[in-house]
Amino acid sequence: SRPPVIAVDGPAAAGKGTLARRLAAELGLPYLDTGLLYRAVGRRVLDTGADPADPAAAEAAALGLTAADTARGDLRGPEADRAASAVAAIPAVRAALLDFQRRFGAQNGAVLDGRDIGTVVFPQAEHKLFVTASPEVRARRRFLEMQGRGQAAEYDTVLAEIRARDEQDMNRAVAPLKPAPDARLLDTSSLDADAAFAAAMELLGVAA
Ligand code: C5P
């Protein structure tokens, strides 16, 4: 039978990336971090000096996206977060990235993480997880992550930015962040990475 598509959606810093990467390795599936696509588009717009919320500039950046753009070193951090969330609200940007995501998963199956994988990109995915955690827990994780990278960070600022990005991602008109009706919910607020992985394997019905 065809290898499965596994959709891992949820808000910023809920632990989706770590979890999705590990599921892919465990199950021998390709992995795609779809947030990276939006981050790279946001960076391309910033490079041109345009506003990431400018639909024409953002669409041009999305249509011209190359693999090298997703490998640049400046895709993490508050500026990239904001730019990604801004371009992600533009329908033409989402449309431009849709085919690539679908082709990535269609052939050999895949684990994809993002905001709309289970609702829009692969509504027929065999497995869907919606990974959440409280804003405070997510802010703390992101704060520690930034400290680890040597980026200046303040917890209160990180928490405010997480809340702002949740707002923007949940309330946009196109492909808003929300669980697919058939998604399994996984709250990682009190779980470390190992416990989240074990819980996910159980929800997916795969023995760890
Ligand atoms: O997952 P990550 O935090 O890297 O995503 C960055 C931004 O890209 C999100 O805040 C969201 O606005 C956007 N995004 C999206 N749809 C996806 C993945 C990311 O809208 N599938």
Automatic annotation (TrEMBL):
Domain of life: Bacteria
Predominant cellular place of this UniProt entry's protein: cytoplasm
Annotated keywords: ATP-binding, Cytoplasm, Kinase, Nucleotide-binding, Transferase
Cytidylate kinase domain sequence ranges: 6-200
Record flagged with keyword Nucleotide-binding: yes
Places the protein is found: Cytoplasm
Leading EC class: transferase
GO BP terms: pyrimidine nucleotide metabolic process
A Pfam family reported for this protein in Swiss-Prot or TrEMBL: Cytidylate_kin
Binding site residues for ATP: 10-18
EC numbers on record: 2.7.4.25
Annotated Gene3D superfamilies: P-loop containing nucleotide triphosphate hydrolases
Reaction(s) this enzyme catalyzes, per UniProt: CMP + ATP = CDP + ADP; dCMP + ATP = dCDP + ADP
GO cellular component assignments: cytoplasm
HAMAP family attached to this UniProt entry: Cytidyl_kinase_type1
Stated family: Belongs to the cytidylate kinase family. Type 1 subfamily.
Protein name: Cytidylate kinase
